[in-house]
Amino acid sequence: DCCTIVDHITVATNYFFSPTKVADWFYDSISIVLSEIQKKPQRGMPKVEKVEKNGTIISIILGVGSSRMLYDIVPVVSFKGWPAVAQSWLMENHFWDGKITEEEVISGFYLVPACSYKGKKDNEWRLSFARSEVQLKKCISSSLMQAYQACKAIIIKLLSRPKAISPYHLRSMMLWACDRLPANYLAQEDYAAHFLLGLIDDLQHCLVNKMCPNYFIPQCNMLEHLSEETVMLHARKLSSVRSDPAEH
């Protein structure tokens, strides 16, 4: 029920584990569970305010008293080991060398229901290294993480339309910066403001050049599809932020 059928030129029939059909099945399953919970409410349990499907993402709003909590849920296929396409990345020197083991970094990866910019959404999945990112964050200073959170807020507030830069792009840029910059500089605990300006500069550089390699798969440029109009629009917004970050 979760497969699509595609006829090949050799007359053979190919079956693809369809991300869109998996997402539909997942949404139906979540809806049934939440419906049962709503039929039998219990004291202290959050109230389901809203369930919405946005593409392959399920957004759930839960209410507790006057508070509201938003959860975005996405189905994934989990794998142990490491994908061949990212094997060469392991051969390079990285900022986390000697801080955590390679086994911790490559403990597994996911397939998420999302395709490339011009891909086939019914057949294509995207590699996710979220499990590895959790391990790498252990090696990043608190001041750099503060700068990342501030820059992430800027992206969500100012660069959400037209869609071009996301927090995922920013994470890749930050991890590349960790590989590029001296460890003693990155360890400075009172440099959050410096790091924020550096991340904004990196964002501008990536935008103007339409070049943002995926941290784990460097041969994958995540910004090559952007139009010149979108690039210049967001670059101007970032220039405004860079001139006076406190205003934003």
TrEMBL record:
Coiled-coil segments on the chain, per record: none
Highest taxon above the source species: Eukaryota
Gene3D superfamilies named among the record's database cross-references: 1.10.1410.40
Domain called Mab-21-like HhH/H2TH-like: residue spans: 163-238
SMART domains the record matches: Mab-21
Domain (Mab-21-like nucleotidyltransferase): residue spans on this chain: 14-136
PANTHER family reported for this sequence: CELL FATE DETERMINING PROTEIN MAB21-RELATED (PTHR10656), NUCLEOTIDYLTRANSFERASE MB21D2 (PTHR10656:SF47)
Family: Belongs to the mab-21 family.
Protein name in the entry: Uncharacterized protein
Record organism: Elaphurus davidianus
Species classification: Eukaryota, Metazoa, Chordata, Craniata, Vertebrata
